[in-house]
Predict the structure.
Amino acid sequence: MSDHRPESARSASEAVPADAGLEPPGDQPQESRPGLAPDNGATAADPPSTEREPEDVEDTDETEEPLDSADVLRRLAGLLGDSGRIDVGDMQVQGQNATGHGALAIGTVNVTAAATAGGGRVWAETLSESTVREVAFAYATAASDQQLDRQLKQRHLVCLSGPTGSGRFTSALVASARRHGFGRVGVLGVEQLADLLGTNSGPRSGCGYVLRLSDETVCSVDGYTLVALAARAETHGVTLLLVGDFSRRIQDLSGHVVEHRPPPAEEVFRTRLRRELTVPCVGFCADGCAGGCVERYVDEECVRHPLLATYLGGEPRPREVVAVVQAIARTAPRAAALTARLAELLPRQLRERAARILDAEDGAGASVGWSRDQVRAFRLSCAVLVGLSASEIRLAADRLVAADGLGYADRLVSADAPMPPATVPLRLRGTTVDQLLGQTLRAAVVVPADGWAVGAAHLQFAAGSEQLRSAVLDVAWTDWYPPRVLLGWLADLVRAEQPAVRQAAAGAVGWTASRDVQAALDTVRDLARERRAGVRQAAAIVLVAMAMQPHLRQRVRAELDRWAAGPAGHLRDTVARAHELGLARLWPDAALVQLRLVASARMQRWNNSVVRGLVEVYQSGHATALVPDLVEWTRSPDREVQLHAARTLRVLAERWARPPREHWPELLDLARTGFITDDDLATLWATALSLPETAYRSWRTLGSWLSRADGQPEVAGHVLALLRLVVAGRIPLRRRLHHQLRHVWRPVMPRNALLADVGQLIDEDNR
């Protein structure tokens, strides 16, 4: 157990030397005997027994990573939560009908079309002045606008680079309007970029034209074509803005490319919503509306709404924000209506984005020799193994490709059907990972800048994008992989050697329970029977993830009741581990019942999980229920149960109250305020001081209480009163207290005035 005391509390308790609680000479402490595990916070050390329950066998050697329950719950909440992000499709119609940025439809356009000698076509669409003004009026200034304006003044051709949906097209339109005027902005459309060089009729002089390029066109463009286009634009007195994703061509096209840096999502939302609201008044303005209600609605009701605040905090792309604005601006919903509208919109749009991620585009992995199935497996592995390195994600993807191939081979007529090839060895670099992730997933993933330098880049989902993980899993479950293949792959990852891989995969198995609870229970039962402690720890995480879903709690609790009452030692151990990792915080009442059953298993003598689960109950604010139950444990005829009660007391006795009462032991402070009774606390202390397995460190802890109480009259009075109850009627404990006082405490704490009162207490009892 970690030390949760304040720094001042720890320094004060260290006033007791290391040997302040040593056993009498010749009596070696039970906990320090050679060959036994040390009691580091909650571990008992009893001589091995030859009696075995079913499955009560020694664990295989494995380093088990200690986990914090709060951290486990926080990570699972990121996967199982219901907040979402938003996306929309690219609404562009080529030709004379409409064009636009995101979902913006253009009204009146003047269209001309010119044929080239090679048979290609060039569309020149001159936008109406009113349309461009509307776009500019609702435009949020981007960080790259000043640089773009400077380039347009110096050059006749500029490339504006940015991912799809980032607002790059709108920025290009507004920049052209700033350069030439609202009535002299046009949009070009071409089949091939070279078609512009062969156009017979030139563009209107003094206009600014915007041309959106596909990814294929961007990859094929060369410097000679750009130079020729720039010369032609200069000849006709126009500017040409090429819009596309030039991120991989910046070095090749140096000097021509401006990287688009979109404004903050919150600023885009505010600006667009103020413009898009179609109702003159969104409040209840009795004496006429002066427009102030619109500002309050945007700033207070919308931007501060928890769902929208989380969404905007994830920095979605401007095109996505436009879709949210349009959904809100139609009716300007408030309070519950706004929440309901968002709850309906966000999950649907989130799933559409996840579907685009897994439906890998043609040629996504062609540059590295990967098939679409391999790319899809890599992207799904990113969602499952969030926070891990790219190499670990790639290995997990290899397993999924193999598992998927085996699954489908079972349904093939021919048993000799070829299996899918394994992923070729590949050193993952920045540009390679970008290609494998694709634009949609890459926009949601953060790669630390220094990760590639040290060769261990870890892929993280950006803040606000966490729920995209569950959406990707949902699409994989329903659209791409048979459930048995997906569950088998995740179970295989849970059995992996790397603890981080096991834990991440365990959360995903818990997620699957909402789709097929029986299949998830069967999977976690198999994992809980494993001899490897690390695998059982991951199985416990699965149970916590399942219990965090309200509609599954009754089913999971019934299953754990059977495990806790059954004879299988490893299943019972997994129940204790689940409570240790956060389940006790969710079900404190069930934890006390199930941990009582698990504590009777001799297998728990070598594990800490029962005590840690009880400490979780205590930390969640249920000390008033825990302490009386532990007192009942001390009266159990089962010595194993008594031992766990004593262990728990010893761990809790090392906790100190929070400032400004940090000089109080936390348990003693609870007794002082009446949350627990002095008699119950004395009973637990008497048990911990009497059992050989816990006596050594319990006497040390009691010595630290006396050290801290010296010079604190109120604390000293309560400590003495507690000691009086502990030794009352217990002759062996009174003798041991006398021994501690004479041979241990007085030699190491000669200036502690409280020890004289302890001596008088012993004499009183002797009389």
Notes: The first strand starts at residue 109 and ends at 115. The chain has 33 helices and nine strands. The two ends are 41 Å apart (CA to CA).
